[in-house]
Amino acid sequence: MLLKSSRTMILSVILLCSLLTASHAAVWNTLRVNASPVRAESPKVILQPGTAGTSIVYANNTSATVNVEATCWRVQSGTGYIPNGETYTVVNIEPVNLSRSFLLISFGGGISGSQPEQDVIVSGKFTSNSQLRFERMGTNNPANFGWYVIEALGNQISVQSGTAQFAQTETQKDVPIEDVGDAGKCIVVLSRRSTGADRTQYNKAFVTGELTSTSNLRLRREGTGTIVTVEWFVVKFNDNTVIQTGETIVSTSNPTIQSINPVNTSRTWLYFTWRATANGLAQVSVRGWLENAGEIRFFRTTTTGRCYVRWFIIEMPETPIKANVQRGFHDSTTNNEYVKNIKIAPVDLETAFSFTTCDSTGTGTAFPRPFWVESITNATNLRLQRWYIGQTSDHNWQVIELGRAKYDFVLKIVNLASENWKVRLRAYAQSNIERLVNCTIYFRNETSISNQIQILNGAYSQNHGDWINLEGSSSIYLAMKISAKNSETTFIYAFLEVLIPNTSTYNLMLIEFRIS
Amino acid sequence: MFGIKRKKKFGQTSLETLALLLAALIIVGVSAAVYNIFYMRFSPVSVEEAKVQFVQGEDSVAAGASIGTNGTSVLFNSISGWPNTTRIYEGIVGIKNFDTQERNIRLEFDGWSGDTTAIEYIHVKVFDESDLQQGNTVEVGTDGSSTGDMEIQAGTTWRVQLEIKWKADALSTYQVSFALRLIVQGE
To answer: In chain A, what are the domains?
Structure first.
């Protein structure tokens, strides 16, 4: 009986337990979320096409693709001086690729008094990929100079460089170089220093350079008696740049006219070196300019002696980025000028340099009166400066902007509503940004700019910007500045974030940047 | 002899008991006519404050949120978006655990209506106080879409983020409605 009862109890417990298992679900509470209605509304902030680059704005003006081209050049520049008592000074620069960079320099003496060439004439070269060395033979008084480092970020140019020295008795130096393949695609850029210890033989320090074959650089001067050291650069253009070169004698005809094959003057610049048979301010001072599409001219204020001008016409290609050359004549009416400021159309300092030549009215040897240092001091000013006044100099100047990939207006961002919004740009994806040397995408209006996305040396230094006020019924512009080291294509995908002030509610409008 | 008889009786009794129980179960299961009434008494059944409630988020005003009494429901009547643009309400509403212990919660899609074909997506995400997304993204319009169970710590408030994108051809007259459920486990 006891057993029977026990079994019945066990069975009952099992049954009850099974019932408990079935019925013991967790206790749940349900809270409701309802959204009604959720509306589609017309965009209050829209995108509109810009005038720079090529932009495509899609349906509803809420997304866009921007196509732009990157600059393939970078210019670094500066001025400096070799201190009194020193033969050289060094200048540190941002690292460059030496096989794609060359150096242009100008010099101007250093005090308001007559100086021999060993103290005045300054040469320049690279001592490493991040350092320049400027040098003279003498040590008296400071020696001022200006410089431009012109670097191709792609393979538009190949550069060879070196140092050659004229012994006292030499007027010609042949320098073997690596075979350039096509001498007709090359220019020769020079600077030099001299041991001349008085002012009577400046002309002997004027040197020309030319390629006599694909593997020989010939340097020449007129006269002997000084040791002249030349820093040379052979720059070969690998792109569609067209080079013309020749030697023209400038003597009794002023101007001397030299015909050339027709060029597009807006993207062509003139570089030349010369050697002089006679000493004197006017005798060694020759200025030159591109008169028109088929003619260059040279001018001195004297007919004494000869200048042998080795000229190079460099016609930059139309694409991918069109170079822009400004040029002009700046006359001088007073002989006590130290500085000439020449107003130029705005340039991007990172891709612009200048090349200026001048004549001189002096027939004596009061050097360094005709030597001027040139520099682009801001986007709209070319500055010429000398340190020893007397006699006037007229100048022919050129400002060469090597592809200005600055797009002031790629998109317009318009607030159609009366209320204020805030906007910013945020990059969220990308491809092949490693090729970008410097890329800045920024907002701008008439008075200010705000950098939003920045890429330096292939990596983001900033992938989004600060919130910018977009006031009711107003607009701002999206602008870009880009340089790249090759001709590939980069994509940057970004959201234009449009924020309702005092909330964290915002809209994401997709903008694709295609940088070729 | 005695032992054999007793064994038989024991076996028979067991079988009889089992049969009786089975029969009783069957009868209870299928009989509509016979009822046995067991009483369950609930006393008192009290009202208590919800342990997990909706609270205002940073964007609740922008979204037109009306949080119901006791924080157990919320209605949004001012959510909108621009065609071909993602509108994000980072803090459309908050979920706060007022309890002194953690709670399991789950947010899930319940239903929607209206011009749903013009919607490219509506995503709902839950973020903790460290701004880390908790659970899965709820895709409005996908049956069964849920964050999955999430454990919200005592005293913490999580934010609910709503992301909506209308297709490029959506007209400004279009609208949809949708509902979500927040399931909170435990008393």
So the answer is: 45-70+405-515 (2.60.40), 74-401 (no CATH)
Q: Which of B72, B75, B166 sits opposite A40 (nearest CB)?
A: B166
pTM for the whole thing? Answer: 0.64
A504:B90 CB<8 A: yes
Regarding whether B92 and B16 lie in a shared domain, the answer is: no
* Rounded Cα distance, A139 and A193, in Å: 12
Cβ-contact A68, A515 below 8 angstroms:
yes
How big is the CA angle at A240 (ends A234 and A246), to the nearest 5 degrees? 50
pLDDT digits (tens, 9 = 90+) for A330-383: 988 888 899 999 999 988 888 899 999 999 998 899 999 999 999 999 999 999
Contact B182 A31 (CB under 8 A): yes
Q: Residue B106's closest chain A neighbor by CA?
A: A30
Rounded to 10 degrees, the C-alpha dihedral A217/A223/A227/A233 comes to: -20
Contact A278, A203 (CB under 8 A): yes
Does one domain contain both B105 and B68? yes
C-beta atoms surrounding A225 within 10 Å: 11
Give the chain B residue nearest A498 (alpha carbons): B87
Nearest CB to B82: which of A7, A27, A507?
A507
Report yes or no on B46 lying in a domain.
Answer: no
Domain of residue B67 covers 52-184
| pLDDT value of residue B126 | 98
Q: Which residues pair with A192 in a beta bridge?
A: A230
Per-residue pLDDT tens digits for B71-130: 999 999 999 999 999 999 999 999 999 999 999 999 999 999 999 999 999 999 999 999
Give pLDDT, residue B58: 93
Q: What are phi and psi of B15, to 5 degrees?
A: -60, -45
Cis peptide, bond prior to residue A346, ω within 30 of zero: no
Q: Residue A327 and residue A270: Cα distance in Å, rounded?
A: 10
d(CA A92, CA A312): 29
Angle at A271 between CA A268 and CA A275, to 5 degrees: 155
Of B77, B84, B170, the CB nearest to A36: B77
Whether residue B97 is found in the same domain as residue B177: yes
Strands B175-185 and A28-40: antiparallel
Q: Which of A31, A57, A423 to mutate to test the interface with B (most CBs of B within 10 A)?
A: A31
Tokens of B20: 């009786």
Question: Are B170 and A38 within 8 A, CB to CB?
Answer: no
Domain count, chain B: 2
Q: Of residues A241 and A72, which shows the higher confidence score?
A: A241
- Do the chains contact at B89 and A26, CB–CB below 8 Å? no
Phi, psi of B3 (to 5 degrees): -60, -45
Asked if residue B30 has pLDDT above 80, the reply is: no
**B31 and B1 both lie in a single domain:** yes
**Interchain pair A26, B184: CB under 8 A:** no
Chain A residues touching residue B77 (CB < 8 angstroms):
35-37
Nearest CB to A33: which of B84, B179, B185?
B179
User: Which value does ipTM take for this structure?
Assistant: 0.75
Summarize chain B as % helix, strand, coil (round to 5). Answer: 20, 45, 40
Question: What is the C-alpha separation between A246 and A183, in angstroms, rounded?
Answer: 12
* Residue A509 bridge partners (DSSP): A496
What is the reported pLDDT for A6?
59
Q: Do B34 and B56 belong to one domain? A: no
CB B78 within 8 A of CB B63: yes
Number of inter-chain CB pairs under 8 A, A vs B: 174
Q: What are the tokens at A231?
A: 């820093």
